[in-house]
Recover the amino acids of this structure.
């Protein structure tokens, strides 16, 4: 599902350029930590706000409240100590071994172009959905496997799905 965003933002798209955020500068560390939190520490939904260098995380033990973390937390591997170890859920729609691939694609989309880039990305291991918001303010929601089947050309309009 694709949802078009604010027309004013789309109209000014080519007058902007991505600026490196603190999360961009430490993206490999952050994505490794998110992978660990999702696959080992009970986080079932993670939304990464790349432009503002923060993340919202939902855990299975307390699904009605989310935790908000800034870049200082997200670049500190000790953050895992705040989330108890839990086995990966057997009823998750996204296989544990595919979480890293989804996160890698987030990185690829963040750096794919200086004008058209990923602003935020989310994954929910139970419903198997990936959510994306781009610099043009467009949003996409799709199953994880469909997401992994896309290439960068698809996102910039250079190739078919």
């Amino acid at each position: 599902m694709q949802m078009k965003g604010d027309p004013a933002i789309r109209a000014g798209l080519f007058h902007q350029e991505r600026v490196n955020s603190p999360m961009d500068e430490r993206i490999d560390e952050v994505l490794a930590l998110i992978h660990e939190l999702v696959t080992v520490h009970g986080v079932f939904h993670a939304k990464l706000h790349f432009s503002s260098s923060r993340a919202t995380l939902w855990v299975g033990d307390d699904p009605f409240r989310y935790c908000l973390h800034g870049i200082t937390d997200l670049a500190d591997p000790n953050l895992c100590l705040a989330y108890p170890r839990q086995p990966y859920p057997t009823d998750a729609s996204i296989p544990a071994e595919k979480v890293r691939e989804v996160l890698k694609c987030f990185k690829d989309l963040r750096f794919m172009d200086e004008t058209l880039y990923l602003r935020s990305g989310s994954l929910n291991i139970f419903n198997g959905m990936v959510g994306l918001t781009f610099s043009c303010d467009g949003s996409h929601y799709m199953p994880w496997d469909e997401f992994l089947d896309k290439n960068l050309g698809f996102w910039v309009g250079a190739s078919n799905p």
